[in-house]
Each structure stands twice: as structure tokens, then as C-alpha cells.
Amino acid sequence: MTPDQVKLVQQSFAKLAPIADQAAVMFYDRLFEVAPHVKAMFPADLTEQRRKLMATLSAVVNGLGTLESVLPAASALARRHVSYGAKAEHYPVVGGALLWTLEKGLADGWTTEVADAWTAAYGMLSGFMISEAYGHPLAAE
Fold this sequence. Notes:
about 140 residues; mainly alpha; Globin-like
């Protein structure tokens, strides 16, 4: 990722902060719409899960400038996801749901440049997490 892409991701995520709860609901609704089979991996009450999602995204987005500061936590998270039943092929589906949520949440703020920056960020991080969890990279779609 370029420094400009890091800045775009951080600035766009800051614009999403006022609707963070709504964005988390949108994300899980979209995820379960496009991949209903993953719903069984989550608790029935998603309140805490949604909070964790937004907190994790915030930490990662804020740490993009110093990536080495977030990689150990991303590695641990990737290994925990394996125990929940997550597979490498779930990462592109999750990425699609995330990008869809950002596009809807940011509305006019979702430009080609912002989309490219988020795609780069998710691709980099998901590639790292897949490698950490399964020992091989899978290109994020």
C-alpha cells in the first residue's frame, strides 16, 4: 500500500465512525446474505461480535501506517478463526461484504481511489492472515 492509500483508508474509516453500529449490522446482514452457510460460525446475538468487528477494524486501520504494530494481533486472530471453522476461501467473501458495507456507508465518499485503497488494504491483510493460519496465501477477490 502506498502512503496515500493508507491515508484514504484512514480518512474514509473516520467518516464511517458516526454510523459504526449501523455499518456492523450492514456487514453481517450482507455476509449472511451472500454466504448463509457461515452464519453457523457466529453467535445468535451478534451485539458483541459487531462491537469486536468495529474495534478490530479501527485498530487495523489506525495501525496501517505502522503495519508491524498490527501484524502480531492479525496473526493471532487468523489462528483463532481457524478454531471457529473459518477457511481460506471465506476471506474473499468477507472482503466482498466489507467493501459492499463501506460503499453503502460512505455513499458519495466511496470513490474509485477509496475503493482501490480498501481493496489493497484488505488484500494485504487477508493474504497475511491466510498465510499465518493455513501456511499458504490466497488472493483476495
